[in-house]
């Protein structure tokens, strides 16, 4: 009698966006993007959070919130954690990575400007429904080095943004080690690692296409949020 076939997990990590886990975001991790926003590159990672309800998958639209008139997509490498991670060293951090994905850190830039001016948290700018479009999962075995990837974004077929993850100010191990000193990370949590320069607004009905060269791509349409629906 052979051993029973291993049942597929009821909740595979390859569908991490269904786990209801945390999305820890890093800002200004590319010097040129910090500068285009009128900011200086940070001396330590700038962190903010998105709720798991922010995820949206291809086939569903990205909503521009009713209070937003300047919606910016930010293509970012997403790191998916494979186990509980608390105060891990930089040397051990990569052992805690299960894989990667591409996300768009959708940003209500006008709301963010207001929040910055008033010293308020960025919640309205960063945490609205569909503010985290997410690609398929890529197991870490398929990525030789997460710092040798090229991200791109097209809007209505025109190339809008391109960047190399080798330009990140803080590397994946540095981010995981720093974050895990402050926020215990768990299997299925995701770290968004920041966007390269070239951000700009998109409009209702725009077609977004984003990808990681040689790995994956994804498409979304922008729609206007209608209150009450
Ligand atoms: C100013 C920002 O929105 C920072 C950010 O999200 C980034 O990717 O950098
Ligand atoms: Mg971002």
Automatic annotation (TrEMBL):
Q: Which residues form the Fumarylacetoacetase-like C-terminal domain?
A: 23-223
Q: Which UniProt keywords apply?
A: Metal-binding
- Annotated EC: 3.7.1.5, 4.1.1.112, 5.3.2.2
- Tell me what reaction this enzyme catalyses: a 3-acylpyruvate + H2O = a carboxylate + pyruvate + H(+); oxaloacetate = enol-oxaloacetate; oxaloacetate + H(+) = pyruvate + CO2; 3-fumarylpyruvate + H2O = fumarate + pyruvate + H(+)
On the tree of life, the source organism's domain of life is Eukaryota
Give the family per the record. Belongs to the FAH family.
What is the protein's name according to its record? Answer: Oxaloacetate tautomerase FAHD1, mitochondrial
Q: Which gene encodes it?
A: FAHD1
């Amino acid at each position: 009698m052979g051993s029973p076939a291993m049942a597929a997990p009821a909740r595979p990590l390859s569908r991490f966006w269904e786990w209801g886990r945390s999305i820890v975001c890093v800002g200004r991790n590319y010097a040129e993007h910090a500068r285009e926003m009128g900011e200086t590159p940070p001396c330590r990672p700038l962190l903010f959070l998105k709720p798991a309800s922010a995820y949206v998958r291809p086939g569903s639209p990205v909503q521009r919130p009713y209070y937003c008139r300047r919606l910016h997509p930010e293509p970012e490498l997403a790191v998916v954690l494979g186990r509980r991670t608390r105060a891990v060293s930089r040397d051990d951090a990569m052992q805690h990575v299960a894989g990667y994905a591409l996300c768009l850190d959708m940003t209500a830039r006008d709301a963010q400007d207001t929040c910055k001016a008033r010293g308020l948290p960025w919640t309205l700018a960063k945490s609205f429904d569909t503010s985290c479009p997410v690609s398929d999962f890529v197991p870490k075995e398929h990525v030789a080095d997460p710092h040798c990837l090229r991200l791109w974004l097209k809007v209505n077929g025109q190339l809008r943004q391109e960047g190399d993850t080798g330009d990140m100010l803080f590397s994946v191990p540095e981010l995981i080690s720093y974050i895990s000193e402050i926020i215990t990370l768990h299997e299925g949590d995701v770290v968004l690692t920041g966007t390269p320069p070239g951000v700009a607004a998109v409009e209702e009905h725009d077609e977004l296409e984003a990808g990681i060269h040689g790995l994956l791509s994804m498409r979304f349409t922008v729609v206007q949020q209608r209150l009450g629906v």
